[in-house]
Amino acid sequence: MGLLNLLFGSGSYSENQHLIKEVEALKAENQKLTDRVKELENVRPQIVVANPLISIESLATRQFVERESIDLIRRISAKLKVDHIVIHAIAIKESSLRPFAVRVETKLPSYKWYRDAINKVGLDPNNLWNTASYGLLQVLFATALDYIKLKSPFELLVPEVGLRAGILHFKKLSQKYSFEDALSAYNYGYPTPKNRDVYVEKIKESIKFLRNQ
């Protein structure tokens, strides 16, 4: 518990306890996954928890999680009528198919749209975990609130929840922009040539590779 107290020490006592409980719940869910892998593949995965991200180090566990993630991407994309290959490619670029990936976006509190979205649900815009992007599609908590009801950003680490929010967001962008501009906007917030080579073209390469498999 010492590590968690260190991580959440900047908030109020009640806030810290709430966040600690949510992280502990995520760790419990991850343990269920670990136990299932042991049963199916007869391996002993090594799970490393930090910040409180979950890194899956065992190769067998990693392969299992990727297969589960790809299957989930197919199913949810089909329900939402979006090309699963495109979503698969975005997930590869955004999270390397890691469902527990978290990336803190330190500049977010300076944006009015972000602060308005977080204030609207009664949370602190300056809280570290409210500024992060989560899951397979690295969805921002503030962005996800446009599509689904959430009480905590950690809910986006439930793969089905994070995927649904990310797919709905990309679908909305696709209806507004061209395909390439939608990819650019998914990454940058709006279409820009700044991420054309490092993001858009990389995803297009992944799409081509996945379609030829």
What does this structure look like?
The protein has one domain (2-211): Lysozyme (Orthogonal Bundle). Helices cover 59% and strands 8% of the residues. The chain has helices spanning 2-7, 13-41, 59-80, 84-95, 112-120, 141-144, 159-176, 179-188, 196-211; strands at residues 47-50, 53-56, 102-104, 132-134, 139-140. The strands form two sheets. It has a three-stranded antiparallel beta sheet with strand order 3-4-5. Helix 3 packs across helix 4, helix 3 packs across helix 7 (159-176) and helix 4 crosses helix 9.
Indicate the topology:
Elements: H1 2-7, H2 13-41, E1 47-50, E2 53-56, H3 59-80, H4 84-95, E3 102-104, H5 112-120, E4 132-134, E5 139-140, H6 141-144, H7 159-176, H8 179-188, H9 196-211
Antiparallel strand pairs: 1-2, 3-4, 4-5
Helix pairs in contact: 3-4, 3-7, 4-9, 7-8, 8-9
How would you summarize this macromolecular structure in one to three sentences?
This protein is mostly helical and 213 residues long. It has helices at 2-7, 13-41, 59-80, 84-95, 112-120, 141-144, 159-176, 179-188, 196-211, and strands at residues 47-50, 53-56, 102-104, 132-134, 139-140.
